[in-house]
UniProtKB/TrEMBL annotation:
Taxonomic classification: Bacteria, Bacteria division TA06
Protein name (record): Aldolase LsrF
CDD domains: DhnA
Protein's organism: candidate division TA06 bacterium ADurb.Bin131
Stored Gene3D superfamilies: Aldolase class I
Known EC number: 4.1.2.-
Amino acid sequence: MPEADEKKEKNFYTEIPQKNKPFFLKGSNNFDWGLKNRLSHIFNPDTKKTVMLAIDHGYFQGPTTGLERIDVTILPLLQYSDTLMLTRGILRSIIPPTYPNGIVLRASGGPSILKELSNEQIAVDIEDAIRLNAAAVAVQVFIGGEYETQSVYNMTRLVDIGQRYGIAVLGVTAVGKNLVRDAKYMRLACRICAELGATYVKTYYVEEDFETITASCPVPVVIAGGKKIPEDEALKMAYNAIQQGACGVDMGRNIFQAQDPVAMIQAVRMVVHKNVKPEQAYEFYQETVAKKRKG
Ligand code: R5P
């Protein structure tokens, strides 16, 4: 038998209204508790931003430069990532289950780099995503591509299933070879993903009018790093994107192909979470590389 609650003086704080704080993330207030909890394992509730480490490139291009041995090159970066974006194959075979942050599982695929990439299908069952404790699933959406409708269908299907179990869906705007990567295209692609239910959207940074992409997208936007550029330029791109309304980066090659990936991800964190100017973050990067050289 439980002990009786014999305390006479209870305090119900009747003068204090119950706290009812809106959820911190743009466009996410009306989700259920489980989905909000998973989003809190992707985005930092204090800064409202995320540094996602994207290492899923192998799903269509095999052992990408810098990802040949994920156990050797990527494991040292995990402690600096807010989230990992990867395939279930790499998650199960290499990532320690003690990784405490959100997992964003690559959930579309099919064609390799040798074929028409936009012809993707859903590549994971929701049961397996749940088994792997995924916070989100990621799906390419090829607006304007040959297989546009199929890729939109992949996303909406995952949104339906994801909503059922409280798993977020990251719509990844993938730009086909013959399409212009500008603000007009990105506004269109991001907005379509959001309208059709993506929990958040990944896009490329564009120099002109990027803020119109984030403003017209009702859910958080994160930027892809894209192909490798010099470290100072990558930091500037991340900084500009954040200043223009991005909620984070989903960066791969510009981190793991950097001369010093550990220093680079730390520098990226500085611009994303602390609004540190890119020049200052780059100085940190250079100093860290120099110190390591000296031994
Ligand atoms: C490509 O579709 C993959 O989703 C990558 O994860 C993505 O492109 C981000 O990686 P990166 O920063 O190397 O562009």
